[in-house]
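BUG: 3D viewer hangs when loading the predicted structure for this chain

Environment: internal workstation, default settings.
Expected: structure renders.
Actual: progress bar stalls at 90%.

Input used:
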Amino acid sequence: MQKSNYSPPIPDLWTGRKTDPSLGNEYWYQCIEMLDIRQPFQKTDLPDIALLGYACEEGVRRNQGRPGTAKGPEAARKQMGKLANHLGGKRIADAGNVICPSGDLESTQKTLSFSISELIKAGIFPIVIGGGHDIAYGHFNGIRSATKGRIGIINFDAHFDLREPLDGPTSGTPFNQILKENEGVGYLAVGIQRSANPPSLFNTAESYRVDYVLNLHCCINTDFRKAVIERIITFTERFDHIYITIDMDGFSSAVAPGVSAPSPIGYLPPFFFPTLTAALATGKVASIDIAEFNPVFDQDGMTGKLVANVVETIVSSKSKPSV
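Structure tokens produced before the viewer hung:
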């Protein structure tokens, strides 16, 4: 690990409502542990789940997006601390942040990759919170390093993020990089918007045999939702491990205004949460991240609260990596 790309957890970020001590731990802030991943893991006393921040917006800047995503992990922690405790005995730790000093995106991605690999090898399930969607390249490489077998990627997103990294990687290039460098990797994108992806990207998707679901099919309607879930289940059957990545701009800006690229025609929580839960229920998910949360443009903490509820759903559904 390049230690200049890592910042240890800060306990003071975890606060919430004061409670009667006799009631036990009522909220997440009272349960959260601290895990400094620079230190050797104590194999006999490890948490089930680690929250790792990806406090990096360099990829978004290079992709001409709105700055602010580097503040996403801190804002998300403040919302997660307020969550009611329904952990059911699962141990969850804050593992600090991977950071991007001096715009060095490439070394930041390598540090993320190393961190993910070490967590998975230790039997800890990672949930990473970004940060730009360049998070995906380092995250995938960490999963690949720690696992054996075929990996499938499920990306909840309005964009393919299949651009060519002509002048270096950006938040718009990670899946092009992954698919170009790795044979046998599958990629399913859920929520793709035609208006946000030019024909060249649809052509790239076709050349890589990318499976995708248009946002118009990501509906609250039960039949549409069931059809998407069946697509996801069928996709996961082809792989040994699944990497799920959630770009918050896939949601409608009505519920997620605090993102790098907001859109009014994204999907809504009644579609997303049952679909995510179905993917997690396959038992194949090795790791997961949430990208493009931009608190600078949030309204009333709405997007931050949505991120916190996504994390709570993941934690409720999953406790150990599938390795």
